[in-house]
Amino acid sequence: MRTATVIGAGAAGSIHARLLAERGYTVCIYDADAGHAEKLAARVQGTATQSPLHEADITVVAVPTAHHYQYIRLLLDEGRTVVSEKPLCLYPEQAVEVAGTSGGRLYIAESQGHGADQVAQREQVRGGYHGDEVQWRVAAMSPYKSQAWSYDLYQGGGAFLEGGVHVATVARMLFGKAVNWQGMFRCFAGGSGPDTGQLAIEYEDGDMLTLQIAWGTAGCWSGACEPLPNVAGLVGSVRCAPWWPGDNHAAMWDALLPAIEAGTQPLVTADDAAGAVADVWRCYRAGGYGYAQYVEPGRE
Contact at 8 Å (CB) between 114 and 124? Predict the structure, then answer.
């Protein structure tokens, strides 16, 4: 019987636990709140555990981003197979470190589905389709009102790090190294980090990722207005949209599990994920926001 441990019984952990159970895995749940772990375990007909090192074929890290590093390092040092929710870690230095850690195997829960289409697009990019000024949508991400990510960066990660790094990771896979970063951000009135604005990342062959996120305006969070759509787009390279309808989490596991079971790397790698974290942070800095401006003293 194949087994999986899911660390974190929140929204992301619940999705992964359900999808793994549907794919024949016996699922064990760990959460700092034992009651939450027991409730999720009951929903997926699994068990709860008091240890994040519970023995399993796969361990999924689905806790808030600021806590990814400690769990991923612990598990990799134990030689485990780890699947990390995005973003890989809160800071670029942490992400690069865990991406290069030997001992275990690290996979990224990041747009692994629709692999054949993504491979075809990457081949188009590498075949020379650049600079044609065609703009296409990567994703129209649904506006969130359930979690104010950037009220406390330590507990969340900031809207662009949490939402933007997902698209930036796929762009890294498609386009390779980034060479230029721009950002224009606006802070939420009662918070410490940028929720609203846009960023742009240019890659070495002239391709560009643009991302606009409209979380956290004062009117939105007070209930006076609805949040605006959050739009991501790419300029150049490929003439078809690399975003497909359906359950992308399910598609991710359908593509990721065969790679894990065969011991091979997926299309989107840990290096792609680490590079994307660095890219988003460079955009923050280009827009005038650095670590120290919205991380509480002593937490970094």
Answer: no
Q: Quote the CA–CA distance of 64 and 56 in Å, as a whole number.
A: 21
Residue 239 pLDDT greater than 50, yes or no = no
- Rounded to whole angstroms, the Cα distance separating 25 from 188 reads 41
Question: For residues 53 and 62, what is the distance between their CA atoms, to the nearest angstrom?
Answer: 14
Q: Tens of pLDDT along 53-101?
A: 999 999 999 998 888 999 999 999 999 999 998 889 988 999 999 999 9
137-180: pLDDT as tens digits: 333 344 333 344 444 555 556 677 877 788 788 888 888 899 99
Are the C-beta atoms of 211 and 164 separated by less than 8 Å?
yes
Question: For residue 267, what pLDDT is reported?
Answer: 83
For residue 82, what are its two tokens?
Answer: 């780890």
Q: In whole angstroms, what is the distance from residue 124 CA to residue 108 CA?
A: 24
Measuring CA to CA, which residue among 234, 150, 225 is closest to residue 194?
Answer: 150
Three-state secondary structure call for residue 74: helix
Domains and CATH numbers, the chain: 3-112+249-265 (3.40.50.720), 115-244+275-293 (3.30.360)
Contact between residue 173 and residue 267 where contact means Cβ atoms under 8 Å apart? yes
Residues paired with residue 139 on neighbouring β-strands, in sequence order: 232
What are the backbone dihedrals phi and psi of residue 293, each rounded to the nearest 5 degrees, phi first? Answer: -75, -25
Question: What three-state secondary structure class fits 160?
Answer: helix
Name residues whose C-beta falls within 8 Å of residue 24's C-beta, 6 or more positions apart in sequence: 2
